[in-house]
Amino acid sequence: MRDPEMFKYDVRVRERMLRGGRITVEEISGLLQALPDVESECEDVLLPQPALDLAAVAAAAATRQVAYSSAPALSEVQEDESQIDDEAEA
Question: Distance from CA of residue 7 to its chain's centroid?
Fold first, then answer.
């Protein structure tokens, strides 16, 4: 941040600054009202947001489930180990 004084308005620390009395709601409102309108200078950038796409999250979970289901169940592994132990004792 170029102006260290503006740090106290950063949304990541704003609540703490309000609780501590370092800034007021009126100061924040005034600062926001003073910002220039630059919407006409912006352009939309469309990027995939997989964490926000519930269908993608569900598909990823299903893929993981398939991967896990192809592995032997824990009970199967334990049974195999029991057989090995029984054979070793005999």
Answer: 24
User: Where do the domains of the chain lie?
Assistant: 4-35, 54-89
Cα 22–23–26 angle (5° rounding)?
A: 160
Cα 76 from Cα 69, distance rounded (Å): 13
Q: Tell me the C-alpha distance between 45 and 52, whole Å.
A: 16
What pLDDT is attached to residue 59? 75
- The rounded distance, in Å, linking the Cα atoms of 48 and 62 is 20
* This prediction's pTM: 0.43
Tokens 């503006």 identify what position?
6
The DSSP symbol for 8 reads: G
* Residue 51 near residue 57, CB atoms below 8 Å: yes
